[in-house]
Amino acid sequence: xxxxxxxxTAGRMPATARMPGHWLLARLGKCVLRPGGVELTGRMLxxxxxxxxxxxxxxxxxxxxxxxxxxxxxxxTYTAVEQDAGAAERMRRWLPASxxxxxxxxxxxxxxxxxxxxxxGEAMLSMQxxxxxxxxxxxxxxxxxxxxxxxxxxxxxxxxxxxxxxLKEMERRMSLSIHVGVRLLTSPGWRALLEECGFxxxxxxxxxxxxxxxxxxxxxEGLRRTLKILFNMIRDGEARARVREMRGLFRSFGDHLSAIxxxxxxxxxxx
Length: 271
Ligand SMILES: C[S@@+](CC[C@H](N)C(=O)[O-])C[C@H]1O[C@@H](n2cnc3c(N)ncnc32)[C@H](O)[C@@H]1O
Description:
Layout: H1 21-27, H2 37-48, E1 55-59, H3 65-71, E2 77-82, H4 85-94, E3 99-103, E4 116-122, H5 130-143, E5 144-157, H6 164-178, H7 187-196, E6 200-208, H8 214-235, H9 237-252, E7 257-265
Parallel strand pairs: 1-2, 1-4, 2-3, 4-5
Antiparallel strand pairs: 5-7, 6-7
This protein binds S-adenosylmethionine.
């Protein structure tokens, strides 16, 4: 994705200083916008075990990098649900005829019940309030057939017994810096959310939250895109300052911020 190909509805994107962090990174040319990077995504996809028999739904595909990896597995159907109109339109330009991208919210997709056998969403629940998180997970449960798998890849507060005061302070500072309301959960918090909505958690993996660390950027984006991001940052002082601020903040949280992926199953007996 080029620096000119920002996936948001033309004319409605706020100035650099107030732009949501993920769209700022996208404007600079970054394509991987999730905390555990492509490696944790790869592990989640392996655990989801998507095959040509699957009907797949993805919540919040963003720039569609994971979508490409999933489509390479030739699922029977692929449907994305993206709330940003510009990003949804951009997805539609390259998706094959057998796949579609709806411009809708994951809370209310409009898709029929039991239409999916595998469903996943990355870096989209952490930015929702507790009520929105619950509504999205409930929607995932409704869309999946009994026995269907649900994968998530999100931010995770660590350790499990992190004092609430530390967690709240992290949320406050991240929300201010990223310009998106961040609501963090610990691993037991994520598990409880999925279980309270009826899922059985079957798999968990963690990765360091190194979204903006040079080594991770190189691994996620490759040399060409990394150079392009650097070039775009050199040309845009305001964006460069925001990236530095976000990276400094992530570093300052040290061992209290991680990436987590969970794969859960809708019980075979569930309606
Ligand atoms: C941080 S980006 C992650 C994009 C992509 N999943 C990735 O990992 O690279 C967050 C994405 O979630 C989308 N999003 C946020 N809330 C959403 C919701 N309630 N329903 C659908 N999409 C949502 C945003 O428009 C954006 O594309």
